[in-house]
Amino acid sequence: MFRRRWQAGGFDGANAEPGMTSSSLSSDHTTRRYGLLSLPAYPLLAIAGAVTQRQVFALLALALLLTVPMLSQLLARRAAAWLLWSGLLAGLLWTWRHGLAGLLLEAVPVLINALLAGWFGRTLGTAEPLVERFIVAIEGAERLRQPGVTAYARQVTWFWTVLLAAQALLLAVLLLCADHDGLLARAGVASPLAVPDRWAAAWLHVGGYLLLGAAFLLEYAYRRWRLRHLHHPGLHDTLLRLVLHWPQLLRGKRVAAP
């Protein structure tokens, strides 16, 4: 029964990377899951750094953000991954010693939103917009053949592209224009738009992430209403399958329908 349930939920070997055994695949899935579960510590460390103005919290937040995407490669003891991780960590230590870790941490939300907007936007010019990849990873390629799904996937890809680009622009303005901690103020340049430091810091480290989380939940609820003629997996299963199959989203290769 467990095996049937595992395969019915989209966790069978069809989505596995080449050369991976079932045991190594299970271990990799577990590593991804627990790695992503540690990410909530990132905003806590970022907030601690912003409130206390202590660079060590910024360093820890950046180290966590750097380590989580590479965790499975590091635990697999791959030399290239360890060399890359060590080099990047050495760079973080250099920024910390020169008092730049806090500034780098403040720039991270801008970079994340800009990169995600570019990722979503690039796929709009292809036959496989990014949300289609999400659908395949979560529900299988057969889902795209059902009425209304393909058109909705492209529309939602547009939605995320615009939202993330607007968010990146807003965060960049906050980073530049904060009253005393903004880049313009630090450079001795008068800001054309004075933004209180506490509001800029709150949105950079908390508000921006809450907005994306709220947008995800609202889109999930709207999708269930818009495509109410179809069965939908629960929110927990949706998130879990995204965690387990994120390499498929990067490759953009559709899984053959069962």
Q: If you had to describe this structure to a student in words, what would you say it looks like?
A:
By secondary structure, the chain is mainly α. Helices cover 71% and strands 0% of the residues. The protein is built from 13 helices and no strands. It has helices at residues 2-8, 22-37, 41-52, 55-67, 71-75, 79-97, 101-123, 130-139, 149-177, 183-186, 197-226, 235-244, 246-251. The longest helix is centred in the last third of the chain and has 30 residues, at 197-226. It is globular and about 55 Å long.
Note the main sheet: none
Strands, total number = 0
Query: What would you call the shape?
Result: globular
Helix content: over 70%
Q: Please give the count of helices.
A: 13
Structural class, please?
Answer: mainly alpha
**Nearest-integer average pLDDT:** 77
Low-confidence stretches: 1-20
Number of domains as seen in the coordinates: 2
Q: Proportion of β residues? A: under 5%
H-E string: HHHHHHHHHHHHH
Termini gap: 18 Å
Write down the Rg.
20 Å
